[in-house]
Every structure is written in structure tokens, then in C-alpha cells.
Amino acid sequence: MKTADAVLDPLADEDGGFDVYAKDCPARMVLNRLADKWALLIVKLLKGGPLRFNQLRREIEGVSQKALSQTLRRLERDGLVDRRVFATVPVTVEYSLTELGRTLAEAFEPLADWAHSHIREVLAAQSRYDAVSEAA
Amino acid sequence: MKTADAVLDPLADEDGGFDVYAKDCPARMVLNRLADKWALLIVKLLKGGPLRFNQLRREIEGVSQKALSQTLRRLERDGLVDRRVFATVPVTVEYSLTELGRTLAEAFEPLADWAHSHIREVLAAQSRYDAVSEAA
DNA sequence: CGGAATCCTGTATGATACTG
DNA sequence: CAGTATCATACAGGATTCCG
Predict the structure, then answer these.
(1) Which one, of B54, B53, B55, B107, lies nearest residue B76 by Cα?
(2) How many angstroms separate the CA of B72 from the C1' of C4?
(3) What's the pTM?
(4) What is the C-alpha separation between B22 and A123, in angstroms, rounded?
């Protein structure tokens, strides 16, 4: 395709930003990455400090080792998570947030809070909706 | 208080919240819904006022009519978006944010801002990562 | 215009097994 | 412990067609 710069420049707008609604906008790629089923959950967990692979796996109920592995690699690639290997006898791998990751974790917090505090309203809305469409 | 939801109670923790890391936690369902590729994009768009179906479709480059339709229905079901039909000659359908939806839009803003202002860092991290792994 | 129904395919995901 | 590799599949998602 194009080079990285060629992609960026035409999309940059006056305020130095990007159009999230443009197809190939990097910001949308970022958003899509964050839309990952586990990514934000992991980031939020790591806010509490470094964790090892299987610790994460135990904490996040329902994640497969494959999904966890993939998500961690993507997060590492995006510079959000740091991966450190310790040459202990059974090898130990520790994941932690980078500086960038920490800023993300903070930006995510309002959304997490929102989910937390509006679950009941959402569930109620769903029931209402289902009741109506079921009636038809 | 313990009536309707057998699902909710066992998951409620001391502070009256939910454990996002539990498999069947409603909060996680909410989060997963938000993790939808288009949901947040739509919510953000509707902050600017009501829009019709094809307006949304045009604004969000790359969304298929099916994906848009499905996402809108889900958002409506969750009580985040309001759908109003006008009996004009070619029927007009208008989508707008509900009160609940507006609170979500606000909670989302920090994350959108984050994506906006950290794209370059993420892209840089990706390049670095790819350069290294490619070297192997 | 705003969608629902159908078909069809890529990919994401999960279970299983193997390695360092 | 911390993964990768393989396979098998379910399902989201796109393209197309048709309808109120």
C-alpha cells in the first residue's frame, strides 16, 4: 500500500488530529484494537501491578490461553504492555503497563465506571425491548 | 431487591458493584457491547444530533448496511439510542441518543481523546515491534 | 429511504496437543 | 510456567436481492 507517512498526512486535519470516521484512519485502528474483547480488561487488571501469564488467565474468567496470548502480543506491539522474561527454573514472564498503557488505563476508567453504574439501566432497557418485540 | 435477578445478586460485590472479571457478569456484557466495532463510533456521531440511517452510513466510512442495522438495533435494545419513524413518502427513520446514551457518550470521550492523541505513539511502537520481530 | 432475508466466505476462537 | 502449532468450526460480516 502506501508508506506510513502517506497514510497519515492526508488524514490529518487542521487541529492536528485524525478523522475517526475515515476508513483507514489510524485512530480507528486504535479504537478497533481497544474494542478487543479482552484488551481493556487486561489493561485495567495490570493497573494493579505486574502479573504473570497464568495469573492473568485466572483473573479473567473465560479467556482462553490463545486469546490471552494473542491479546497480550497485540498490546505489547502497540506499546501498551511490557513483557519481561525472568530466567527462573520454570520460566517466569511478567506483564506490566508501560507509561503509555497507564495513560490508556486512565482514559478507560470513565467508561468502565459507566458500565459499572449503568448495568441495571441497560438490562432494564433490554427487558423492555425484548418484551415488546416478543409480543409481536 | 433480591427478586428479579438471580444473575445479578451472586455477582454483586461489597461496594454494590459487579465483578467485570467474572464470566457472566452483566458489566462485561455491557463492555463487550461497547467493544463493538461500530457502537461507540455511532454514539459519538449521534452526540451531534439525530441522524437518519443513510446519513449514518455515509458518515461512517466502511460500515455495511447490515452491520449498521444490527448495531443500531442493539443500541436501541440497550436503551442507548432512540429510533423514530416518520410516515413521510419515502419513510424517514431518525436515530438519536437517549439520556442514557448521552451519559455513555460522555464517558467515552476520554477514550476517544486518548486514541486521538496517542495514535502516533502507538504507530511508532508498532513499527519498532515489527522491525524487531522481522529481524528474527 | 430504510431495512429484512439469503447466501457465502474469511477469520476469530476454542479445544487439543506439543515444546522450551 | 508460558507459550506455539494445528485443526475444526462457529459466527460475524460483506455482497446481493427484494420489500414496504
Answers:
(1) B53
(2) 14
(3) 0.84
(4) 17
Mean pLDDT for the stretch of residues A3-28: 59
Looking at the DSSP bridge assignments, the partners of residue B84 are B94
A94 vs B: CB within 8 A: no
Distances (CA, A) of A62 to A41, A59, A128: 12, 9, 28
Nearest to A50 by CA among A102, A108, A116, A91: A102
Q: How far is CA A125 from CA A53, A74, B6, B104, in A?
A: 37, 34, 18, 14
Domains in chain A, please, with CATH?
Answer: 36-135 (1.10.10.10)
What phi and psi values does residue B34 have, to the nearest 5 degrees?
Answer: -70, -25
SS3 A35: coil
Within 10 Å of residue B31's Cβ, how many Cβ atoms? 21
Q: Is the pLDDT of residue A7 over 60?
A: no
Rounded to the nearest angstrom, the minimum Cα separation between A90 and chain B is 24
**Hey, what's the cell of A55?**
495469573
pLDDT by residue (tens digit) across A37-87? Answer: 888 889 999 999 999 999 999 999 889 999 999 999 999 999 999 999 999
Answer yes or no: are the C-beta atoms of B110 and A110 closer than 8 Å. yes
Of B111, B109, B98, nearest in space to B72 by CA: B98
Chain A closest-CA separation from residue B119 CA (Å): 6
Q: Whose CA is closest to A41, among A30, A57, A52, A20?
A: A57
Q: How far is the CA of A36 from the C1' of D2 (A)?
A: 22
Residue A7 in contact with partner chain B when CB distance is under 8 A: no
Residue type, B15: D
Q: How far apart are CA B53 and CA B68, in angstroms?
A: 8
